[in-house]
Design brief:
heterodimer, A: alpha+beta, 16 helices, 14 strands, B: alpha/beta, three-stranded parallel beta sheet, 2 helices, about 30% helix, elongated
Chain lengths: ~425, ~100
Amino acid sequence: MVATDSDEEFRQKVTGTLVDNIIHAFTSKPAGQSAGLREPEPEQIVFQGTLDEVQEFFIRRQWTDGLPVIPPTIDRVEKFLQCTDRLGSEVVGALLPENREATVWNVAVNGVMAGCRPEYMPVLLAAVEAVSDPFFRIEDAGSTPGWEPLVILNGPIIKELNVNYETGVMRVGRQANTSIGRFLRLFMGNVAGFRIPPGTTDKATIGDTFNVALAENEDVLAELGWESFSVARGFKPDENVVTVQSVVYATAPIASGGDRAREHLDTFVEVFGGAMSTWTHMAVNWGKFFPLLVISPSIARVFAKDGLQKKDVQQYLYDKSKVSVESMERLAWQGGFTGFDPRRMVEEKIISPVYCESDDPKRMVPVFLKPEWIGIVVSGDSGRNRSRGYVQNHEQGPPVSRRIQLPANWKQILQAGQH
Amino acid sequence: MKEIGYKVVWPLGKRIAGPVALAPRVANLSGKTICELSDYGFRAEEMFPLIRTSLSRRYPEVKFIEYGTFGNTHGPQENEIIATLAEQLRQYGCDAVISGVGG
């Protein structure tokens, strides 16, 4: 482990074991690769048994997230397929690192297993489309910090599917939020291949549990004249949109008070900006950073009363949140970025010159790379004054949005689903 | 009471690519060109000089193309760098590559 080795330990490992292994790898013929076991066809029955036996069968193969799953029978999968106009055989994308096809069919299978209702299918498909975009870099979801995807919903579908956007919005409990979030983690295991030991590709040092889906309170947005998270990302106000982005960790709940915006903003800078500042070295190293701030409606109302829009909040946070270069460089080196060099990043036009305006290690530089890259979602208990920030993992899992494609008979589906 | 039996399907997806043939190995490293690839992290700036010195002691004729030549292969310009990497490795007459050294 190079980050904790002494200089002498490091030298011995490199000049001994590592160099020996390099020579061996270059000069020895590797063992032949096996063709692998023949894998099942999508609609093939792979097992028949009782509920308990199905659980054991799936657990032994690491096809679950450790929780019981709903048995994916063909009848149940077909109910999901009835909630999309797309064919089951359609390939939605390919997910690294296991390099497997994401199809409409296996989205439905994993949706069944996660406890989703069939009518969530259009949301599940849009979420998988988002993480299949190469820009999202799902192949990095097993990286050392252990990030999780977060599904963010906008549009009328929030109410149609009874998605929680009020008290306890980020807790398990409401079926839509919980099972949609669970689905994506399950899908990442089964199709992208991220499995904890005895799996091989998930290398999260500690990791975290899956995120439930987050929905924005669009009633409050309409009341305040604020644009939604998806509109800020280029969609129309009435479009149903899924955005997926990575989350590495959440801040403490941000308790801000007062009837003027400034009082809340300064607390946001201290708590939100402070928490994000421990990740700025990663942002600078990769040239991307999309942190997310979830504001409860009562605080959004104070901002709106003082004439602020979301972009004004973003700008204030960008202008006032600072971190010292000394701290950034120390955290970068300890995090493994031993060649961390903001000057090179500026020369390559990846970050702003503001990061290299002097050589003083104590100089303060912006925590955030761009104000518009700070996502803001209004959600949570309308009667309480708490907000929360979510650190996003730079180039890994940047926000990717997809419009949700509804089937032609969507209204009948909703009626049948009794929403 | 007799329990219901469930007939269940497979939750994974078809693999896109099968096994890839591995590149042939060299008999020894003498006179060969080794290219270095790095993400500029995990003490690469200390590790690669140590590797160069050690290998050069055992194979005096070995030649290195240092990782700075290729840029950060796991960084913000990764896609652009990877897109031209195979051609670059050919241009430098690369016989072997050191990559994927992490912590």
